[in-house]
Design goal:
By secondary structure, the protein is α/β, with parallel strands linked by helices.
Length: 246
């Protein structure tokens, strides 16, 4: 098992009203070397998240006092942290709602702890990359970067994690930025949903393709004038997506 030295230890907040699940997750997370915080209701989870700023949050949807979707939205309005929704509901609407409110991933009960640990690691790796880049910018005096990709009227600043369309800043989440960046790096080439799931989310067979579709839809709502007839982020039916050059 991979050891994590004390200085590098990440903190994970587990918010679930089922004590047995919290204990199970705490056990496996601590075996992986993480510090674990616990909460059994939404209000307590929200308070701990905002005060302690954990590196990742495992958040149940069905919670007393304040539901998980509301908790997710409030946290994301304050700071950017990977949130993995845990739900006993297996309907598409629950998964879509969680992603729409800023959740980075979701898993349905009953879940495999091996699968969940893989998702935790994948999401932490993605956010670590952002933190390292931000520190690098600080050390360099935050000099203006030329590390940019331009596709048509879309410009991606890879150091600032910023997207502009005709000079106007578009507010994308980290995951949305990474999807757009991956497509922009191969403009005009069709990328399958499976490839996006593997390269952007960081795992192959653990994810749900619907996650990719929902994220693409959110991006379109922000960069397209008409989402029913997208001109920038185009679907190749039955295959995947590509970013159009013009």
């Amino acid at each position: 098992m991979e050891e994590i030295i004390e200085e590098e230890k990440k903190t994970v907040l587990v918010v679930d009203d089922e004590v047995t699940i919290v204990e199970l997750l705490k056990h496996h997370l601590e075996l992986e070397g993480y510090n674990v915080l616990e909460a059994n209701d939404g209000l307590t989870g929200l308070e701990i998240a905002l005060n302690e700023r954990p590196n990742l949050i495992l958040l149940d949807i069905m919670l007393p006092k304040l539901d998980g979707l509301s908790v997710c939205k409030r946290i994301k309005n304050v700071y950017n942290v990977p949130i993995l929704m845990i739900t006993a509901k297996d309907t598409e609407i629950d998964k879509i709602l969680g992603l729409e409110l800023g959740a980075d991933d979701y898993v349905t009960k009953p879940f495999s702890t091996r699968e969940l640990m893989a998702r935790v690691k994948a999401n932490l790796r993605k956010y670590d990359a952002v933190s390292l880049e931000e520190k690098k910018q600080e050390e360099q005096g935050r000099k203006q970067s030329e590390n940019k990709i331009t596709v048509g009227d879309i410009t991606l600043d890879l150091d600032k994690f910023e997207v502009r369309i005709k000079g106007e800043v578009i507010d994308l989440t980290l995951r949305e930025f990474e999807v757009l960046k991956f497509l922009a790096m191969q403009t005009g080439q069709i990328v399958t949903r499976e490839e996006l799931l593997e390269k952007v989310w960081g795992y192959e067979y653990y994810g749900d393709i619907r996650t990719v579709d929902v994220t693409v839809r959110r991006i379109r709502e922000k960069i397209e004038k008409d989402t029913t007839a997208p001109k920038r982020l185009v679907t190749k039916r039955g295959i995947g997506y590509y970013l159009a050059a013009d």
